[in-house]
Design goal:
InterPro entries: LD-transpeptidase, LD_TPept-like_central_sf, LD_TPept_cat_dom, Transpep_catalytic_dom, YoaR-like_PG-bd
Pathway: Cell wall biogenesis; peptidoglycan biosynthesis
Helix content: 25-40%
Structural class: alpha+beta
Shape: rod-shaped
Organism: Candidatus Blautia faecavium
Strand content: 15-25%
Strand order of the largest sheet: 22-21-20-29-23
GO molecular function: peptidoglycan L,D-transpeptidase activity; transferase activity
Largest sheet: 5 strands, mixed
Protein name: L,D-transpeptidase/peptidoglycan binding protein
């Protein structure tokens, strides 16, 4: 038993010694590792993307310096273009600033034995120096910076097409913000960023208005609504059309920024209509019963557009968006809207020949001698011109200074001057009017006055000439 115990005791001592030896060796290895990694990077260490495992500060900085010397910045431009700037073009080079040494000091070298499976990346601000003037000039020489290669940005806008108006999309263009490009490139070069995208970095000048702009789309709809209507004026044998080509020139923006119609421009158009189509009181060329051409001046017959009323009506018609055929709002109306606004139903009075004709629908149903106003007495001469029948009354009493005369048919056309029967006369025509004329009225045989009265109406034209 004693021998056996002695053997066991020796065995234990041997095991203890072996353990102590292992521990000493392990401790030595550990501290050797601690010492080694106090000036070497731990396994799995990457500095600025480069594998620096087991490298010293100097070796790491030499690697970073080489990477700077070999650095080429990729510059991506709009439209998949690519350009580059090398370190040499900007005289770019690495300068040690102690950053790598500080990084090494901060690594946990006491846990080096745990680092063999690590994958740890470090980013340090490299101390980079470059020639500022060279870099500025290099950037300035890039193809993307050349003016001849640049397309300026353009805003989306409203354009007329065949059927209306549409929005033309914006043009992004290729014009760069030069200072922004310089700043972006300088930063990338100093930080080692391998690639920059000028579009992603917002270096391009941008349009201010895009196709989806709410205001632009609202305005386009307003313009199309206002110009999409066609207004046709009916002047019997003539027409005038108000359409997109005309309305587009009348558009203005109001205080709220909405498109509307410029009242003054619409009024100017209505005024032109009046100048072209109004006949009220205008000089006319008239063909007499015997084929003579007479120039008729004065009178109150004809058409006259109500300028204010028609301006308002036209604006409302356009705003309604309803294509339509319309007549203007008239202040005065004749019987015919044709170029010859006298038409086929009218009275014709020839003062020189003391003859009066009444045409109905182009057929003379009255052709009679008459007695008109005495030209030798001031105020009694029958006025000339183109007039309209102002009223009709049967019977009637005509009154004036020193007289009162009953008549059966009274058709005034120029104030107190009118056509009426004159039963007190036995003769008509000839030169009677010179020595025994009326106070201005057209004295007419009873039966002829009746025919006219029964076939005429208020507003019918009366043409009087010498």
């Amino acid at each position: 038993m004693t021998e056996e115990k002695a053997v066991k005791s020796v065995g234990k001592k041997l095991v203890v010694c072996l353990i102590l030896v292992f521990l000493v060796l392990a401790a030595a290895a550990y501290f050797i590792g601690v010492y080694y990694f106090s000036n070497h990077f731990l396994p799995g260490s990457k500095v600025n993307g480069f594998n620096c495992s087991y490298m010293t500060v100097q070796e790491t900085e030499e690697l970073l310096a080489k990477s700077v010397d070999a650095f080429v910045l990729e510059i991506r431009t709009r439209g998949n273009g690519v350009e580059g700037i090398s370190a040499a073009q900007a005289d770019l080079h690495y300068v040690s600033d102690g950053s790598v040494e500080e990084l090494m000091k901060k690594q946990d070298r006491y846990k080096w034995f745990l680092a063999f499976n690590q994958n740890k990346s470090y980013e340090v601000e490299r101390s980079i120096e470059y020639d500022k003037d060279k870099l500025i000039e290099t950037v300035r020489q890039l193809d993307c910076m050349q003016e001849e290669n640049n397309i300026p940005p353009a805003d989306a806008y409203i354009k007329e097409n065949a059927s209306g108006f549409e929005i033309v999309p914006e043009v992004e263009g290729t014009t760069l913000k030069r200072k922004a490009v310089q700043k972006l490139v300088a930063k990338a070069m100093t930080t080692g960023t391998p690639s920059v995208d000028l579009e992603e970095a917002g270096c391009y000048l941008a349009p201010k208005v895009y196709r989806d702009d709410k205001t632009l789309n609202k305005e386009c709809k307003q313009i199309n609504r206002l110009t999409g209507v066609v207004i046709t004026y009916d002047f019997a044998d003539r027409t005038e059309t108000v359409d997109k080509d005309m309305i587009k020139n009348w558009l203005v923006k109001n205080k709220k920024g909405n498109y509307t119609l410029d009242k003054e421009k619409v009024a100017a158009f209505v005024n032109e209509l009046g100048y072209k189509y109004d006949t009220f009181g205008c000089t006319r060329t008239f063909i007499t019963y015997d084929g003579r051409e007479k120039t008729i001046q004065g009178g109150d017959y004809g058409w006259a557009i109500d300028q204010e009323g028609e301006t308002e009506a036209l604006i409302e018609a356009i705003k309604s968006g309803v294509t339509q055929v319309r007549e203007p709002v008239y202040a005065y109306e004749g019987w015919s809207r044709s170029t010859n606004d006298i038409g086929g139903t009218y009275v014709e009075i020839d003062l020189t020949n003391q003859r009066m004709l009444f045409y109905k629908d182009g057929i003379a149903i009255v052709d009679t001698p008459v007695v008109t106003g005495n030209p030798n007495i001031q105020g009694n001469e029958t006025p000339t011109g183109c007039f309209a029948i102002d009223g009709m009354k049967s019977p009637s009493v005509l009154t004036g200074e020193g007289y009162a005369q009953a008549v059966t048919y009274w058709m005034p056309f120029a104030g107190n001057v009118g056509i009426h029967d004159a039963t007190w006369r036995s003769d008509f025509g000839g030169s009677i009017y010179i020595f025994n004329g009326s106070h201005g009225c057209v004295n007419t045989p009873y039966d002829q006055a009746r025919i006219i009265y029964e076939n005429i109406g208020i507003g019918a034209p009366v043409v009087v000439y010498k």
